[in-house]
Amino acid sequence: MLEYLLSFLILAGALFTFVGSLGLARLRDFYTRLHGPTKASTLGVGCLLIASALFFSTRSEGISLHEVLVTLFLFITAPISAHLLAKAALHLGLTSLAPPPEDKPRR
Amino acid sequence: MRHRLLPHPLLTLVLVGIWLLLNNTFAPGHVVLGLILGWAIPMFTVRFWPERVSINRPLLLLRFIAVVLWDIVVANLAVAWLIVGRPQSLRPAFLAVPLVLKSDLAIGLLANTICLTPGTVSAQLSEDRRFLLVHALDAADGDAVIAEIKRRYEQPLKEVFESC
């Protein structure tokens, strides 16, 4: 029973990570490409980490809590890198599908 | 004096928790070592964290975290569907979200949350800290997205970290 749950989680994780990377190829400008890897991968990595925590908690003695930390660090760092990439892209004025935000109140 | 010796009690607790998780143990020796680290690190990094953090409504914070986790799952599915579906029909947009939050931590957490929930990336904070520029992957109705962000994420953050 556990094997089925674990295989499901791992496959789902792999699928979401793949879709995240697929976004890089299919989306058309820098800003939208940014969404694929930073986003669809949160759920993908989440599934893989839950599977890992379950596996090591049941196979070895004691529960495995490293995965909680990985999740925590991932959720802290991934948005920061996405934010910095977007900020750098704005600064460089990369071409964008969306109307650039010059008309918006910026400062 | 208390402020100098123990500038961030919450940070201390978090650091002890992280230390124990890193070592995957609750042995007394590691608890003591974690407490020493949790006491020393905030003292040496106090210059980077000038404001004292206070959580006004812990239960609301837990509820907020649950809402965000749920949104991550739902929105991940939505973004995956958009990518697999027809990327040509996306309507990306830059949105300026007006902020009512004032503290660094609350704004940082809001920007972080916006990045974590798929479909939106926070791109820039205006210099006067009154607008957060957000890039949305598919925003047919920009105002609705802004209202959603303000209602779901900004309001609870304001109640938790800034007394109102």
Describe what this molecule looks like in 3D.
The complex is a heterodimer of chains A (107) and B (164). Chain A has 107 residues and is an all-alpha fold. Chain A has one domain. Chain A is built from 3 helices and no strands. In chain A, α1 (2-26) packs antiparallel against α2 and α2 packs antiparallel against α3 (66-92). The model of chain A is unreliable at 103-107 (pLDDT under 50). With 164 residues, chain B is mostly helical. Chain B contains 6 helices and 3 strands. Chain B is globular, with a radius of gyration of 19 Å. The two termini of chain B are 28 Å apart. The interface between A and B is large, with 48 and 40 residues.
Write out key terms for the chains shown.
heterodimer; A: 107 residues; mainly alpha; disordered C terminus; B: 164 residues; 2 domains; 3-stranded antiparallel beta sheet; 6 helices; globular
Which bin fits the share of residues in helices of chain B? Answer: 55-70%
Give average pLDDT of chain A, whole number.
80
Structural class of chain B: mainly alpha
Oligomer: heterodimer
Number of strands of chain A: 0
End-to-end separation of chain B in angstroms reads: 28 Å
How large is the radius of gyration of chain B?
19 Å
Indicate the radius of gyration of chain A in whole angstroms: 18 Å
Give the % helix of chain A. over 70%
SS strand fraction of chain A: under 5%
Physical arrangement of strands within the biggest beta sheet of chain B: 1-3-2
Number of strand segments of chain B: 3
Largest contact between protein chains? Answer: A-B, 48 and 40 residues
Number of domains of chain B: 2
Taken in chain order, the helices and strands of chain A follow as HHH
Q: Can you tell me the residue ranges of chain B where pLDDT is under 50 for at least 5 consecutive residues?
A: none
